[in-house]
Amino acid sequence: MGSFLDFFYALANYSWMQRAFYTALIVGIVGGIIGVFILLKGMVFLGQAIAHTAFAGAALAILLGIEPLYIIIIFGVIAALGVGYVNEKKIMKEDIIIGVIFTFFMALAIIFITLNKQYSTDVNAILFGNILLVSKLNFVVLIITLGIVGVLILGLKKEYYLITFNSDIATVSGIPVKLLEYLLLILLALTIDVSLKAIGAILVFAMIVTPAAAAYQWTFKINKMLLLSSLIGVISSIGGLFLSYLLNLSSGATIVSLSTLIFLFSFIMSPKRIKTGFTTAECKFCRHVINGESYCLDEPECRALDIPHYHDDKGIIILKKDIKPLSTPTKHKHDKEEEK
Amino acid sequence: MQLKQESNNLTSNRDHSDVIVCLKDVSVAYGKNIALYKINLDIEKGEFIGIVGPNGSGKTTLLKTVLGLIKPIQGNIRLFNQNIDGKIPREIKNKISYIPQFTPFDKNFPALVEDVVMMGRYNKIGMFRVPSKEDRERVKHALELVKMDNMAHRPIGHLSGGQQQKVMIAQALATSPSILLLDEPTSALDFKMTKNVMDILTQLNKTYGITIVTIHHNLRIIKEYTKRVIAINKTLVYDGSPNDSQFDEIIDEMYI
């Protein structure tokens, strides 16, 4: 287990390992937090388009021989504003925009890379990322940017929650919806841009979506979802860093694979899905879906009205057969038919 | 409790010349399509008004124009005796609540009933702040008003359509509004639940003096619950009592 101890030795003694550790920690936390609102708002694909624009920015920077980070950030923010504008004005359908922008910027990126006659290892680093090679400059920018993103998103939590719930109600109640939507896109672009070097352009978006999607499976409370999402983000990023070091694998790919495993586990074990199995049960009498407080409220003619088919406090249904009827239900027409 | 007091103040100051919504020659267009043409409308404090009209007649557009979600191409809007030109000022927004057309919630949306009602108070709480004890009291009270307080901790997606609609009413009430605009609040509900929701609205109107404007498709419900009905078909075609014989004629004409 030499390399196991190596990991902690490096962590204690080398600044590049400490940078990697803190990068993993903060990308996990902030990616998890912003991911919750991206997921609930249904902006997952818009974010994917932004990630690929950032890659084109990186390719251009390498061609021009400038520090990629600045160009990436400029490209990302412009992409966020452009995507937001096209989406707001409903110029075309969302999936068409994404299909067009996404491929165009990939094409641009490829042109920039091929213009650059000698294949640079930098391109590789941007595409696949390496959390162990995060430079000092990149680290400082990452900590500051993600710190600001985290504070802003948590500070505006209520507003974003209401916007994801119903943006018309949010507008009427006086929340500057358009402004906040643009801000969310810009914060998303910044999160992607500064994390690009650590996780890689292809995979960085998984750090935002996957932990939130996993957390979504577990809870009905927004605060709990935010907490779980950043926790899952941290577990996968730090766990991934550790595993990639131990097994000598690509760090970005290991981190994303780990978070996907957590997502799969959450999806299979999700109490929501298990509950759904019950809640979509049909009422035997009115063939209506049993839900909520469920005295077959939706169906006033149902003769099972006087048989309680309840949920208990945790939302689990106590099946009808477990409860004695309060009174004998009158029979349906179709019951009589069945008897025949 | 405070909601009650505020509302009582409202009712005590009630004056029949109190016009809180006033539209003058308001026209709205989507591109080149005229959606509403020269609408003139006064709504007084404490009224219970039904809006009817065929699909695509501009009912929702009318509500959204009053709410400032759509800008008219011409005409003048006054809310609470203030000319609205562009953005609606915050103190007026606080007096108006809106319940959009019912769309069923994603079953797994991470929100409890009390969270949804609390959203109604977000604009009063303000950005970068957390709800206070008073806010929670208001939420509880709003849920009591619609008799949903026993379900405060249920996920919103697990309720039936009627229960969800009552939660939306509670959310609108949490702001302690003077006027409540509803877009087909009962379109997804059966007759029993429809009456239940309309009874709650009537009670809010009578007890707390909240002005209610509701779009409705069911003429039977309109006749039973409202004293004034507005029929719209791109322009205002009727404004008066729903039990007038002239109204029946206009309805026949409009829907044939």
Helical proportion of chain B, percent range = 25-40%
Strand order within the widest beta sheet of chain B: 6-7-8-3-9-10
What characteristic shape of chain A results from the CA principal axes? Answer: globular
* Parts with pLDDT < 50 across at least 5 consecutive residues of chain A: 275-282, 284-336
What is the makeup of the main sheet of chain A? none
Order of helices and strands of chain B: HEEEHEEHEHHHHEHEHEEH
Which structural class do you get from the secondary structure elements of chain A?
mainly alpha
Report the major sheet of chain B. 6 strands, mixed
For the secondary structure, the number of strands of chain A is 0
- Count of extended strands of chain B: 10
CA radius of gyration of chain A is: 25 Å
Rounded Rg of chain B: 18 Å
Low-confidence stretches of chain B: 1-16
* Number of H- or I-type helical stretches of chain A: 15
- Termini distance of chain B? 48 Å
Distance between the termini of chain A: 73 Å
Structural class of chain B: alpha/beta
Number of helices of chain B: 10
The helix/strand order of chain A is HHHHHHHHHHHHHHH
Strand content of chain A: under 5%
Domain ABC transporter (chain B): 21-256
Pfam families (chain B): ABC_tran (PF00005)
GO molecular function, one term (chain B): ATP binding
InterPro entries (chain B): AAA+_ATPase, ABC_transporter-like_ATP-bd, ABC_transporter-like_CS, Metal_Ion_Import_ABC, P-loop_NTPase
Summarize the structure in words:
The complex is a heterodimer of chains A (340) and B (256). Chain A is mostly helical and 340 residues long. Chain A has helices at 2-13, 15-41, 44-64, 68-88, 94-115, 121-128, 136-155, 157-165, 167-172, 177-199, 206-216, 222-247, 251-269, 271-279, 333-339. Chain A is built from 15 helices and no strands. In chain A, helix 3 runs antiparallel to helix 4 (68-88), helix 3 packs parallel to helix 5 and helix 11 crosses helix 12 (222-247). Chain B is 38% helix and 25% strand. In chain B, a hairpin with a 1-residue loop joins strand 9 and strand 10. In chain B, helix 4 (113-119) packs parallel to helix 7 (161-173) and helix 6 packs across helix 7 (161-173). The longest helix of chain B is centred in the C-terminal third of the chain and has 18 residues, at 191-208. The interface between A and B is large, with 37 and 43 residues. Chain B: GO terms for molecular function: ATP binding; ATP hydrolysis activity. Chain B: Keywords: ATP-binding, Nucleotide-binding, Transport.
